[in-house]
Design brief:
The protein is mainly α. The chain is built from 10 helices and 2 strands, in the order ααααβαααααβα. The chain has one domain (73-281). It has a two-stranded antiparallel ribbon. The radius of gyration is 20 Å and the shape is globular.
């Protein structure tokens, strides 16, 4: 019992050390984002703060960086970590189009993509072909580019943080606790960039905690941080880069759309509940 209690105290000590370091590092970038211009150039640095905090914590604790679960893992979980975010973002926008919360893409919007592809030297394309090629490029090259920053977050959150939490909490506890911390870490960005801050903070917390259940499940099942890196990057690309440009805004429904929209919060919550049930049932 004493050994177990000692291990739990050590785990909580490590957790709070990591959170303190990530808070201090992130505060510098949050300040830069709010006060310096152009603010967006500092977001990439902010996203690497969890990784740096994890590495510093490991060094202070005399532990190896190799403990951060670098192995690639089972390809099954890699594939699912790409497909699941594509599925829930697609469902979100299908519902948005179905309930007329946003309009289907116009020819003019698609032609803009065709013009951009032409400037890249691809040639003159029909609207349908332009959409297909643009989605393929964003879904591959765009995701790889996004992984350069999501890797920084996931080394910290899923490669290190949730494994420390697992020493003292259940799957449910790990998912909720890490989700709240992960969402809270973003709040200055929501306050700075948000329009309806109270609503967007509420939907954002629902979305992030729901995603936390899914990503915790795949991280523990695969024993690898890479499914989370891919999942995070794919989710960002599809909810930020692919579907919004293909959706015509309808006046008065803005709060339903986008990565902080009500529609996305509802859909991710359903997925989160399913993975909570799945994780508990499988004793992940």
């Amino acid at each position: 019992m004493k050994a177990n209690l000692s291990e739990r105290k050590e785990a909580w000590s490590t957790i709070f050390m990591f959170l303190l370091i990530v808070t201090v590092l992130s505060s510098l970038f949050h300040y830069a984002i709010v006060n310096l211009y152009p603010s967006r150039i500092y977001i990439g640095g902010l996203m690497w703060c969890p990784a740096i905090a994890a590495i510093i914590t490991l060094k202070l604790k005399g532990r190896s960086i190799s403990s951060l679960h670098w192995n690639w893992g089972n390809w099954k979980y890699i594939r699912l970590s790409y497909l699941i975010p594509v599925l829930y973002v697609s469902i979100t926008y299908l519902l948005i189009w179905l309930f007329a919360l946003g309009g289907l893409p116009t020819v003019e919007v698609i032609l803009e993509w065709a013009k951009e592809l032409k400037l890249m030297g691809i040639g003159t394309l029909t609207p349908t072909v332009a959409v297909i090629i643009a989605v393929l490029l964003l879904g591959t090259i765009g995701v790889i580019r996004a992984m350069a920053t999501t890797l920084g977050e996931e080394i910290g959150w899923r490669g290190f943080f949730i494994y420390e939490l697992k020493k003292v909490l259940s799957f449910t506890g790990v998912s909720i606790f890490s989700g709240i911390i992960w969402a809270s870490w973003h709040w200055p960005l929501i306050v700075y960039y948000g329009k309806n801050v109270a609503l967007e903070l509420t939907t954002f917390f629902i979305i992030i905690i729901s995603m936390s259940f899914i990503m915790t499940y795949y991280t523990f099942k695969s024993k690898s941080l890479w499914p989370a890196v891919i999942f995070h990057a794919v989710s960002n690309v599809y909810i930020q880069k692919i579907f919004p440009p293909l959706t015509v805004k309808v006046e008065g429904t803005e709060h339903w759309l986008g990565e902080n929209g009500i529609a996305f919060a509802i859909v991710t919550a359903v997925f989160g509940i399913y993975y909570w049930y799945k994780g508990v049932k499988e004793k992940v």
